[in-house]
Amino acid sequence: SHHMAARALLAVVFPSLLLVVAFSTDDGAFGLQPISRRSFPKGFIFGTASSAYQYEGGVMEGGRGSSIWDNFTHQHPDKIADGSNGDVAVDSYHLYKEDVRLMKDMGMDAYRFSISWTRILPDGTLRGGVNREGIKYYNNLIDELLSKGVQPFVTLFHWDTPQRLEDKYGGFLSPNIINDYKDFAEVCFKEFGDRVKHWITLNEPWSFCVWGYAEGVSAPGRCSPWEKANCSAGDSGREPYTVGHHQILAHAAAARLYKQKYKGMQKGKIGITLVIDLMLGIKPP
Fold this sequence. Notes:
Blueprint: H1 2-12, E1 20-24, E2 30-34, E3 47-49, H2 52-55, H3 68-75, H4 92-105, E4 110-114, H5 117-120, H6 132-147, E5 151-157, H7 163-169, H8 176-192, E6 198-203, H9 205-213, H10 239-266, E7 269-273
Parallel strand pairs: 3-4, 4-5, 5-6, 6-7
Antiparallel strand pairs: 1-2
Helix pairs in contact: 1-4, 4-6, 8-10, 9-10
């Protein structure tokens, strides 16, 4: 329902006017000081974010093909804490206008969302054909965002490898993925680049490698069976590095393509989202 979508948005964003910060006073006491937009540097962007599989739902609608997350959640529901899946999720496929209204009401500047590879290319390849219904959905979402003054930040890959490519050559375990990903990215640049000015090639490639190919807790659920009982296939000592290598090459191929062929005309930016773990040493006594 739209209430679920509202809760999901509220869970990942903090309205700037409601934020407070603790500060130390001269007498050592702590107080609360409101934060406003003026507390942040000029140009700071307030926004919220989602990923296609976690938000859209509509997995069997609009010509979408299956991804490794469809297979993973249905074949291994025990690997999901509550056994749920993204078949419906918060139904943003149908409720995107309500979602955008919530963003506008909360004062958001931007919305980062991912494009489902298989909603654009159902079998993962350009040869298999472009799904115009998928193009229409994202055009509608982008236009709705812009009409409400919310800038789209688009992630091209948020871990949802097309299942057909996983079956065909092992997905990101194969260098074949690089050209198929580049083809997908180019379709997106062509179709949406007149309005999308911020592109993200990959979401957290480290997480995709480790959780999907070393720990087996995310799709495609691979790891060394001799080491972890939760996996039936994989090699935790090798596959994460192979997948990481191919992700870097896929990122480079898409970024180079955009900069050489589209950036001059579309005037956008392209980058990658990396995850970090900040470690601070214990202060010596």
